[in-house]
Amino acid sequence: MSASNRRNALIGAAFLMATSAIGPGFLTQTATFTQNLLASFGFVILISILLDIGAQLNIWRIIAVSEQRAQDIANRVFPGAGYFLALLIVIGGLAFNIGNVGGAGLGINILTGLSPEMGAIISGGVAVGIFLFREAGRAMDRFAQVMGFIMIALTLYVAWRASPPLGEAALRTFVPEKLDAVAIVTLVGGTVGGYITFAGAHRLLDAGVKGKESLPEVNKSSVSAILIASVMRVVLFLAVLGVVSQGVALDPQNPAATPFRHVAGHAGLLIFGVVIWAASITSVIGAAYTSVSFIAGLSPAIEKNKNKWIIGFILISTLVLAMVGRPAQVLVLVGTLNGLILPVSLGLILLAAYRADIIGDYKHPKWMTVCGVVVVAAMAVLSGMTLVKYIGGLTA
């Protein structure tokens, strides 16, 4: 692999992971938590970034060193665990992709006036088009980069126009007035939960960036991915904080759109249309690519025709959205499932980090293990509590 292709793969993997995290749910969560916690949400973002990095470094390094996909590593740790993990990832990825396609349809609706269903179909066609290219991996990498830059640039403009209280935000990032553990877990799950963290790691594997000699590059790409997603989170946080600090209430139907509309009127709404479309379409691509990467090893036929399976995954998501609409209750349940996937997947990876038959003579840093265990414990307890609460609500 040439140095140029290797560099593009590393950058592409970082943007694929980051833009997979930045979906319609990411936008809504950030806006809602900012309204609830105000400037103290900066502290939640800071803690979640540290936990995200701890989780992602563990996962990306072990995948790179073992030169195996996550499901294959899991099967080596406990026979059958990889199939279970793949099932969780595919179910979660498909359900979330229905929501992602819906977000893309909403973006087209805002920009053109077409129905959200028609917008979803058009967006699904765009996503499918990426995987019709002979060099689909490179096309996906470049598309994720362009969309990522567009999202951040447009939201940065809105944040500047919103005139947020930067001094207060900086102070409360380190000295918060309010604390919300659930918000931290939600952000961690939304950034590195479910299929998201594996998007970049599996992309690097497919691009041939693997082995102990690649670890410095893998570290850099891994942390860069978290920082890209976090820049978007911080910029949107400041945009929302600017308007709610002026006494503006967020639209409960679409809270993330409020700062865009407030600072720039109809033009701001169009900017939001571009942002939510870019956020959603890249999440559609990331979810489809990563979900199929978890089942590709089950059959040589799937591996050989991986792009066709990815296209099928996107088409199913699009058709369900267009015919049935967004199944809200299913998405809520799978949202909790997404949070539960992280402690399962990260726990298996941490066990693999101490198996010589998987990682050879590689020595995993103890501080990374400690960080990983903290994330596993926190996500397992709080996600479990949320799941019990949800099931209790259904049976009440």
Automatic annotation (TrEMBL):
Main localization of the protein described in the UniProt heading: membrane
Signal peptide span: none
TM ranges: 37-60, 81-98, 118-136, 143-162, 182-205, 226-249, 269-297, 309-325, 331-355, 367-391
GO terms of biological process kind: iron ion transmembrane transport
Keywords, ordered alphabetically: Membrane, Transmembrane, Transmembrane helix
GO cellular component: plasma membrane
Membrane topology summary: Multi-pass membrane protein
GO MF entries: cadmium ion transmembrane transporter activity; manganese ion transmembrane transporter activity
Location(s), subcellular: Membrane
The name this protein goes by in its record: Divalent metal cation transporter
Organism classification: Bacteria, Pseudomonadati, Pseudomonadota, Betaproteobacteria, Neisseriales
